[in-house]
Every structure is written in C-alpha cells, then in structure tokens.
Amino acid sequence: MTSLFDRFEAAFMPNYGVPPVALARGEGSVVWGTDGTEYLDMFGGIAVSSLGHAHPALVGAVSKQVATLAHTSNLLLHEREVELAEKLLELLQAPGKVFLANSGTEANEAALKLAIKYGKTTGRSYFVAAEMGFHGRTLGALSLTGKPSIRDQFGPFPLDVRFVPYGDADALAAAVDGDCAAVFLEPTQGEAGVVPPPDGYMARAREITRAAGALLVADEIQSAIGRTGHWFAHQADGYLPDVLTLAKGLGGGLPIGACVGFGPAATIFEKGDHGSTFGGNPVSCAAALAVLENVDLAHVRVVAAELRDGIEAISHPLLKGVRGRGLWLAAVLTEDRAAQVQAAAQRAGFLVNAVQPDALRLAPPLVITSAQVRSFLTAFPSILDEAADG
Ligand SMILES: *Cc1c(COP(=O)(O)O)cnc(C)c1O
C-alpha cells in the first residue's frame, strides 16, 4: 500500500519537501497523526491555531456561518465583516479603517499598495525593510523580504527596497530620508528565529519615520492576537504604526488577513483602488470573531512565563538560552542541531519547529495548559540529549 507520504510526494510540487508527520485530528493543544500517534502541538501551525484544535467556540461559529451564508463577494456586505472590523478597532483603541484579505502576504500587498500610492502622491520613491525580515511570498511582499534564501532567485524586483540590519536604530535613521515612502518592520522577527529587537527600537522607528514623513508599517502577522501576551505587540512597545498587518492567529486556522490604516493612512485607498473576491468572507470573519472573543490574555501571560522560566532553568550543553515574547519563543542552541532536536521531539511526542539551524520555535496554541507546558519541560532535557548524540 502506498503511504500518504509517497502519495504526497507524487502529487505535489517539491517546494515544501515531504512533511515528517501526517495529522488526522486535534483537540486543544493535542493532535493525533494518521497512524494514531499523539503529539503535543508546541508550534500551533506556525502561530496560527490560537484557540488550539477543534475549539467548541470556533467550531460553533464556523459551522453556523457556513450553514447560513458562506460567501457574498465584496459587491455585497455582510454582518460578520462589520462586526470583525469594529472589534479589531476596539481592541486597537485607535481610530482607523480595515481592509480584509485572505492571508498574511495579501495583507502586506495591501499595505504596500497603500505605501506606493502614498509615495506617488507625496513624491517619495523608495522603501526600507530589515535584513532577514519576512513579509510573505507574493512578489510585492517578497520584494520587502530580507531573507536572501527565499528572495534572491526571484529578483530583481520593480521596487527600490533598501535593507537595514534589524534592531539598529541608527542604521534605520541613516536609511530613511524625505524620499522614503514607507518602512516595513516586524516588532519581533518571526521567521528569522523569533528575534526581538533591543528595547525601544520600534518606538525609535516610529520617531524616525514620523520625522521623515514616511509611513511605518508594522507587520504583526505573527506577533498579534495575543501571541505576546498583548492583543498586538505594538501596544506593549508604546507606539502606533501608520499601517498594521495581521493574519496567522486571527482566524484560528481559517484563512484571513487584515490591513489596518490609522490616521491619514486609513483613507489612502479610494474607491476602486484595491479588492479581493474572498477577502473578509463570512466564514473566516466568524472564525476571527470567535478567536477574539475567546483568547485569554491573562492565561497567555501565565503559561508563557512558565514556559520561558522552565526553559531558562534547564542547564544543558546544547541549550544556549531562550528569547522571544509571550507564547512565542525560540529555544536557542549552542550548535546547528535544530533539525535533530525537532526530530527527537517528534519521537518523544512533541511538535516543535526548527525555524533556524540553531533555533527551535515554540508557538503553541494560546490555550495550552500549565500541565502541558510542564510535560514539555520535563521531556526537553532528554530530547536535547538525544539530539546531541544522534
Ligand atoms: C507568515 C508571515 C507572513 C506571510 O503570511 P502568509 O499567510 O504565509 O502569506 C508575513 N509576515 C510575517 C511576519 C509572517 O510571519
């Protein structure tokens, strides 16, 4: 009998490689493979499954909506999209306007088109982004993406994007002048390995862009929706961007993205400037509303501290330390053995993500329990032992 893995390899383009596990179902922070193996999900489908798997509120909201009205197009409006935009603005506590898309990269395409239009109307011609940053795979977002391995072979790109070292405010100040249309930054770099900037960096970026008249676009596609213990990472950093992009955790597993403009940036798009057939579809909006009603920030902070403190307390020659914010951490290794740790963790019943050769990303569902965190912490030293030997 041909395995699911062989069938995957035969039927799919090779861009993902063949994943190591085939999942069948999940409940809370636990998932089961097609062979019945149980795993603790410690990376939440890349910080997406905010409510975990099969959360009753998400199941209920999505089931009800799909049985009522699944699609309208944007030629007609529906209640869920209005409720969702209002709820986002309420949580953001700032006057703004929302555009809904289907994914992270599309949220950034919307932000980029806003920034291009802003540049054209104010005589600004270039963009600034960070080295090793990740903003998505479609061509506009890719042109802002600083990771050479995913960017370089698809260039050159038609936009003038200048890259600065992440976290270096002086380099940013030197790169941004009155010709700069916009600066795109992640508040913590996710795909680079959950790398937070030095304290005060994003607030400095806000000052620098404001002084130069450039837009500041905060890509919170991975950092928002409670992931850091705050609804949005920028709220803890004490600044408001001009444009904010969201996706991943917002739909709790249903595809949705959002681009929010604040102040004058809220109305850069005029009628006809942008659109999406599926963007803000009722089912994804119902899912996002269920997420926003059920994420418990106090719980996130408690279990996040338990996870961080627990990793910090482990003394192991392969473990250098832990970085990140909230339930969005990287266990940093002393050697490039993240792939071996991921494999050893899988054998021990834990799904983690080797986000960099020397870093494991931990971004579990926000509903993970203290007992589940403890079970991972108890197993982690022997997982590291096995990866160090293997
Ligand atoms: C994942 C991610 C994206 C791209 O989102 P997709 O939904 O995969 O298109 C963009 N920016 C950041 C910071 C991300 O983490």
TrEMBL record:
The keyword Zinc does not apply. Pathway: Amino-acid biosynthesis. Its cofactor is pyridoxal 5'-phosphate. Its EC number is 2.6.1.11. Keywords: Amino-acid biosynthesis, Aminotransferase, Pyridoxal phosphate, Transferase. Pfam families: Aminotran_3 (PF00202). One of its GO terms (biological process) is L-arginine biosynthetic process. One of its GO terms (molecular function) is N2-acetyl-L-ornithine:2-oxoglutarate 5-aminotransferase activity. SUPFAM superfamilies: PLP-dependent transferases (SSF53383). Belongs to the class-III pyridoxal-phosphate-dependent aminotransferase family. NCBIfam families: argD, PRK03244.1. This is Acetylornithine transaminase.
